[in-house]
Each structure stands twice: as C-alpha cells, then as structure tokens.
User: Which sequence fits this backbone?
C-alpha cells in the first residue's frame, strides 16, 4: 500500500516537471483515502515555500479547516527538506514515507543537504548572517500570550 | 537600526496576540525600507505553515513576483524555527536578526527546540514514523528534470 501511494507521487512529480514545475509531489492519506495532493509550485506561484509537502499540508488544512493533521500520513516522492520537515511536525502528521533520499535531491541540484548542514550550526556560524540582538522587552509577546485566557494553542 | 526594526516586530507580535494570533511577527527590509510584514496566522488561516517569517516571505515574493529575496533582511521577534529557517535558505535572504531565542519560545510552549532535536536524527529514530521505501523508478522525476532544457531553476 505504501508503495502504491509512493508510485503515485512519482508519476505526479514527473508530470509536474512536464508542466514547468519542480520534480516533487506529495499526497496526504487517511484510511487509504487521498485527501490532498501537492506538487512543487515554487516558480509558478512565486513562493519559495511552495514545496510539494507544504502544498499538500496547506490544501488539506484548508479543506478540514484545521491546523493539525494528526491522523494523516504523508507520501512524498522525496525525503522532505528541513522546511517541510518542520511543517510536518507543526501539522503533527502520523507518519511520512518517501521514495528518493536527500542525496538524490542534492545530485539533481537541490540544496536540501546544505540546509540540513546549516541548521545544526550555531546561528553565528551559518552562511547567511544570523544574529540575536538583545531588546529590553523581547519576551513581551510571550508574556501577553501567557496571560491571555482565550488563546487558541497550536 | 537593527534594534528599531526588531522593536517593531515586538510591537506587532504583542498586537497579534491581542487579535487572537500567535506571539510572533517578522518584517522584511531592503535599504531601510519595509517591503512586507508577517504575523503568525496559524490558527486564523488554518495553516500550520503560516508562521510570521513565512508569511512575510510569501507576501514579499507575491509583491515582487519572484521566488528569491536575495537582497532582503528579515527581522523576527523570535529565532526562526527549523521550518522558517528552511524557508529563509530557499528564499536566499541576505541576513536575519531576531530578538527572542528558541529557549524563550520553548518556555512559552512552542516546540521549536523539539524540532531542532528531531531534525538531526536519522529518520527512523524520530518520534513521527518516517521511512524511505525503495521504488524502481524513484529518481525518474529528477531524470525528467535534468533532461528538460526549458526548466526554471530555483
């Protein structure tokens, strides 16, 4: 069953290339039913976050009007990049299965491996300049959040 | 100057809590001009990827009709989570400055630290079931991509 859904992501990814998109696709499934399909739309949508996995998650969340997908399984044509991996945790998916690995993506010119390497470095050692700057009231948003009784936790 | 923009993100984040959103905000700046403001819209938009940084990146990319923001600096009320860090690399931002650290976010109940811990583990050891499944034609999307002369690289 896993192989069948993954096979579909491969076909969707090949088709997406023919349509001018990136070589990635993903499917969200619950109880063997597909709820959402995502293909890479970075260039078409002018959106660097429009990876297949994130597209599938956003589409499913819109359909369900929920910001969590705790009972859904993601099938992806390729191992999720760190951005998509983060999205998978925030969406609290049940499981993720993928066909290609990050090494295959790197060979095709996609920088997933670079980002995996960067993420574990302290901010100051990364290739993009990153720095924490002290502000007296930096935690005031969290203080406001903690005080608010009506908040919707996520 | 960095402090001034960060101070704005703190005020935006406090306001966003009052409006029912999460305690985070971000601003994208080029040559001291703000091009986009993002606030956390996870619950309001039913979108687990609608973090402040990603909102700002998406808004700026829509305005510029570009999937890259190579000359832009991001100011964020908090250290970006791994998902947003990935988005920052894909958008190829010039620099990132932030006020709170990931520890402050964790104290307020946001799982950034958990995701940072998970991302460095091999997929099989993560708390969400993740597994690569071999398929005979798994790399066919990349083969199609490599062959396509008209592709828009990203």
Assistant:
């Amino acid at each position: 069953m896993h192989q069948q859904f993954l096979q579909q992501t491969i076909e969707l990814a090949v088709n997406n290339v023919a349509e001018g998109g990136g070589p990635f696709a993903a499917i969200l499934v619950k109880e063997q039913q597909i709820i959402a399909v995502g293909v890479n739309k970075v260039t078409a949508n002018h959106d660097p976050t429009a990876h297949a996995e994130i597209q599938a998650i956003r589409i499913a969340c819109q359909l369900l009007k929920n910001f969590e997908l705790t009972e859904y399984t993601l099938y992806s044509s390729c191992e999720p990049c760190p951005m998509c991996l983060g999205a998978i945790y925030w969406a609290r998916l049940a499981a993720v299965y993928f066909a290609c690995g990050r090494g295959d993506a790197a060979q095709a010119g996609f920088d997933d491996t670079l980002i995996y390497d960067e993420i574990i470095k302290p901010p100051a050692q990364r290739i993009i300049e990153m720095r924490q700057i002290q502000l007296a009231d930096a935690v005031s948003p969290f203080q406001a959040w903690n005080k608010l009784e009506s908040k919707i936790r996520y």
